[in-house]
Design brief:
The protein is α/β, with parallel strands linked by helices. The chain has helices at about 1-25, 35-55, 80-95, 115-125, 135-155, 170-185, 205-210, 230-245, 265-275, 295-300, 315, 330-340, 370-380, 385-405, 430-445, 475-494, and strands at about 60, 95, 160-165, 195, 220, 250-255, 280-285, 310, 325-330, 410, 420-425, 450-455, 460-465. The longest helix is centred in the N-terminal third of the chain and has 24 residues, at about 1-25. The structure holds pyridoxal-5'-phosphate.
Length: about 500
């Protein structure tokens, strides 16, 4: 007996010794107050010096291979924060698209508002789990209130609900899955089912259809009018033809601001067709949705409230840093029916009928506390400057279009309804596509501003997308003067 007790005591002693050793060896994971203060100060210094230099920084720097500096092994030993910040600067921040710059006018620009960084910092330090109300009633509520605010913005009734996602792609996927479930499209129905969109619909809708097992649906590309908007009589005709051939039309995806031209499909008219034939109407407003905040935008974005589901991208129109999308549905039940699950290991979580937690409406379970990066700037700045900034973007795009129209040789796309302008230079001789391709490359080589290109009706065109909260008149004027300078230079060279 005695020896057994002694053995146990010895085992215990060894085990406790081991545990204490491991605790000591891992203590570095939780720095103390003075270390933390020092680290925070270093990070803040870095952020401040970045923001200080930002107005003079280029919007684009060509790849010089700096990212290869990151090809170093992960050591067992601790590193030094100032060395690591140096590495961030030389290997990451120095090249590519500077998405924080007001010169960023390509694709759909992002944002990066400062209070969002504070929100992320605090969300990460406190690591509140916002997915389930039981885990953090406040974090869940903050996200629900943001969803409610967006639902009101688009004109949805109190029955609406939604989810904060990582971006527009996941938000669109969530909507497509919800549409599929609510419309009762089963695997065996897919081949006989039809979906309607235009060729300017964002590619993430195709990706979402495939991810949702719907790739074999018959995809009807509805023709567009001269302003690149879905042609509603053509939509109606396609649906009627499909019904007559025994197929099942079930989904229309419209765009409220296409990526290519910023065109807004006539949502109110499309909604009537959807209603008549019992189709789900999804509106991808990832780019354009937040223009509902200003009267210039509201004039264009009519009928969003008629859609069954809508996608918005706060990391575009609300100027948040990357990682914030949103999906809204007119009736929260649709989303809940597609996404709510129960599990034994979650039995401690009480679910009250009709009171959904964010995770009940999401593809995700564990997720970042995304609300704080959105809530903080909204509350801190108030809504008024957001409304003004969005209206400013529309007026800047109009201004750019009008200025360019005055200069001979430029062929312009439609007058902007939102904040995208498409344009190309038609030289007196030579291939216009190649000319414009060289032009966009020359803008990139200059680097002060960044614009992108696309193809419209097979032609190579340039596009200016004004959406960054730091893009103001001086930047747009710079694009105009740079284009003029490049053209003069070309003419001298030819
Ligand atoms: C940006 C965008 C998307 C994709 O959203 P991500 O946030 O990039 O995933 C989808 N549709 C439209 C119209 C967009 O502008």
């Amino acid at each position: 007996m005695d020896s057994l007790i002694t053995d146990n005591v010895q085992t215990d002693f060894k085990m406790l010794d081991k545990i204490r050793q491991l605790e000591k060896a891992s203590a570095g994971l939780d720095p103390n107050t003075s270390l933390r203060r020092k680290m925070t100060a270093q990070a803040v210094d870095y952020a401040e010096s970045f923001l200080y230099k930002l107005p003079e920084m280029n919007a684009f720097e060509a790849d010089r291979g700096c990212s290869r500096l990151l090809e170093v092994p992960f050591d067992e030993e601790a590193g030094d924060l100032s060395d690591l910040l140096e590495m961030l600067d030389t290997a990451v921040i120095c090249e590519g698209i500077n998405a924080a710059s007001g010169g960023q006018m390509g694709y759909i620009p992002g944002g990066g508002m400062f209070p969002s960084a504070l929100g992320d910092f605090l969300a990460d330090v406190t690591n509140r789990y916002s997915g389930i109300s039981f885990a953090s009633p406040g974090a869940a509520k903050m996200e629900q209130e943001l969803v409610r605010w967006m639902a009101q913005l688009v004109g949805y009734p109190a029955s609406a609900g939604g989810d904060l996602t990582s971006g527009g792609s996941i938000a669109n996927l969530t909507a497509i899955v919800t549409a599929r479930e609510t419309q009762g499209i089963r695997a065996r129905d897919v081949e006989n089912s039809c979906v309607y969109m235009t060729s300017d619909t964002h590619h993430c809708i195709d990706k979402a259809l495939r991810t949702a097992g719907l790739a074999e649906c018959k995809k009807q590309l509805v023709p567009m009018d001269n302003n690149f908007k879905m042609d509603v009589p053509a939509l109606e005709q396609l649906i009627q033809e499909d019904i007559a051939s025994g197929l099942r039309p079930w989904l229309i995806t419209a765009s409220a601001g296409t990526t290519d031209t910023g065109a807004v499909d006539p949502v109110s008219e499309i909604a009537k067709v959807a209603e008549k034939h019992g189709l789900w109407l999804h509106v991808d407003a990832a780019y354009g949705g937040f223009f509902m905040m200003c009267s210039e935008g509201r004039q264009v974005l009519q009928g969003l409230d008629k859609a069954h589901s809508i996608v918005l991208d706060p990391h575009k129109g609300m100027f948040l840093p990357y990682g914030s999308g949103a999906v809204l549905v007119r009736d929260v039940k649709w989303l809940a029916q597609a996404q709510t699950y129960q599990a034994d290991y979650m039995q401690d979580v009480r679910v009250t009928e009709g009171q959904y937690s964010p995770a009940d409406l999401s593809l995700e379970l564990t997720r970042p506390f995304r609300g704080l990066r959105f809530w903080l700037p909204l509350k801190l700045f108030g809504l008024a400057p957001f409304r003004a900034a969005l209206a400013e973007k529309i007026w800047l795009a109009r201004y750019f279009h009008e200025q360019l129209e005055k200069i001979p040789g430029w062929e312009l796309g439609p007058y902007p309804e939102l904040s995208v302008v498409t344009f190309r230079y038609v030289p007196e001789q030579g291939d216009a596509d190649a000319f414009n391709e060289r032009l966009v490359e020359a803008v990139r080589a200059d680097g002060k501003v960044f614009i992108s290109s696309t193809r419209i009706n097979g032609k190579f065109v340039l596009r200016l997308a004004v959406l960054h909260f730091r893009t103001h008149l001086d930047r747009v004027d710079y694009v105009l003067s740079l284009l003029q300078r490049l053209l003069l230079h070309r003419q001298r060279c030819d």
